[in-house]
Amino acid sequence: MIAKPKDFCMAVLLLIMVALLYARSNVINVGVEHALGPMFFPRLVLSGIGGLSLILLVQSLRRTAGQPRSGASGPRVERRERILQWSFVGLFLLYLIILPVLGYIWTTLGFLVAGMALLGPRKPRNLALYAGVAVVVTFGLQYVFSGLLHLFLP
Amino acid sequence: MNFNLLDFSQAWFLLEPTTLLVMFAGVFGGLVVGAIPGLTSTMAVALLVPVTFGMEANLGLAMLIAVYVGSISGGLVSATLLNIPGTPSSVATTFDAYPMAKRGEAGKALAYGVFASFVGGTLSFFALVMLAPLLGNFALRFGPCEYFSLVVFTLTCVASISRKSIVKGLISACLGLFMSTVGMSDTDGIPRFTFGLMELLSGFSVMPVLIGMYAVSQVLVEIQDINKPFTIINATFTVREFWAVVKSFRHSVYNVLRSSLIGIGIGILPGTGSGLSNIVAYAQEKASSKDPDSYGKGNPKGIIASETSNNAAIGGALVPMLTLGIPGDATTMILLGALMIHGAQPGPLLMRDNGPLVGVIIAAFFVCNFIMLFQLVYFIRGLIKSLLIPRHILYPVIMAMCVVGCFALNSSMSDVWVFFLMGLLGFAFNKLGFPLLPLVLGLILGTMAEGHLRVSILEGGGTLAAYLDRPIALAFLGMSLLSVALSIRSIYKERKNMRQAAA
Predict the structure, then answer these.
(1) Using CA of residue B177, residue B180, residue B184, residue B186, what is the dihedral sign?
(2) Of B121, B385, B402, B417, which is most buried by a Cβ count within 10 Å?
(3) B137 contacts B329 by C-beta, under 8 angstroms
(4) CB contact under 8 A, B417 and A45
(5) Could you state, in order of their start, the residue ranges of all structural domains in chain A?
(6) Where are the domains of chain B?
(7) ipTM score assigned to the predicted complex
(8) Taking CB atoms and an 8 Å cutoff, what residues of chain A touch B222?
(9) Whole-prediction pTM value?
């Protein structure tokens, strides 16, 4: 019986990752092999992660008194808030994909208005406010980074 | 004591009008961020680091210190008027400041907090000036064994105190150490774990990882509470009332001194800082009082203890960062990342090799305390208004600022992708109960740990024998074991109590 499924899954994932990376460390060309070569430290650390993951795996199988069955660490999140969270992540991902194509100004303006509308109220008055804030922030950041600090923007 | 390592030769630069203006803006920005619930001092400093890329190192670091001081102090406002700590450093402030505000003494509660913050910060400046050269000189004796043991001590210490599971803390630290090995090996010039990606040849850039872990993951966590309504208590804060409160501080000298010492001491410990110090100082003040029942019901001494200790922790956290290159808390870790961007190498030689810059940082901390006091006394009404900024407007703006900042680092979208992925990883870590601090510390200190471990083993003829002749290294390793043992003991004790409670 798995007492803490999240910890169990994480431990298994880590063990798989360690195995894959350890195998990878054997195919990396390091020239002349020696004990203290470039793979010494990564393998040492991987062994540490592997050992600790095994302990986590064992711990995830045992339930301690007073601990919730799921092993969850934070408070329960409502479904509505969870959808909002991941919609925002999706919108942000879209922003990052479009950014190099359309450039900084248009994508940032669009992301800011869409992000504010997603998280907040969507009445015409609010949308006008979002547009105003988006224009100020977008051009303000451009002025600070490009104008004052002479740094490139996407 | 040898004060030669303290170099204030460039500190005059802080009195130039441009620098003062930048620090003034930095403190105010920090106060606003600190006052807004959910936005932490770490996030405030992380967001501002990219702005310093185009600045001189002195000016950039002075601005970041200003933001740091401001954001720790700003938490007081929301703790008093909303009963929500603006930052973790103000958790204990809510216990007495909010009850005072509820009975119509909000201005008085704020005044106590403002002056306590100033006194705590100023006392910790003097501690920093005293302790930094002492520790800096001590660090000059370090060889490869000491460097490596220091990293082990830092990581185990942070892993032990970060969360309830030390195993998760240690896994997090090891993952950070592994991430530091990605890219071209410093010693051998061999590319490792790049999977054919040219972008990974130089390894993970520290700043996108830090900004992703501390800004993105925090925003995602905060979105959960976006629909939670706030009730703000009206506050009337007058300068006359403030001076009346200052006069009454003579009755709290012992409380101020003890809370400052607690803040400085906890700040020095790796991975702790103001988030813990305010709780400990509050508990100590309550325990030593003749009237402990009055705490939590609006006793100003509780506010004094909490606010003195959280600002004192800033100076404490700067001590190991500036002398050993080991950050005292998450915010000083970002500062260390900023130092690296400006060409300084973290480690025990930081103070010797970058004396004038370290001097500017210490002096900036002192000046910023006065700016913070001035702004809190005269501009607190504007700060209270910042509590009204809707969070649904703030979060997209923060994300856009992060993207621009990460891109500006190397004019490359790959840094932006690293930042995004690290944000998701940070969020997942948060959900699964893995602490973030050991991971990022491992990433920052990994290269140093690897190099010195290899050299120390070579010195020992392929064994760890070299460590046996190095008492400082052995002491660090002993303290590492002790921190792990104490952590395991406290976990078992807690479980035993839970079992007894359940029975």
Answers:
(1) negative
(2) B121
(3) no
(4) no
(5) 5-61, 79-148
(6) 11-229+239-502
(7) 0.88
(8) none
(9) 0.83
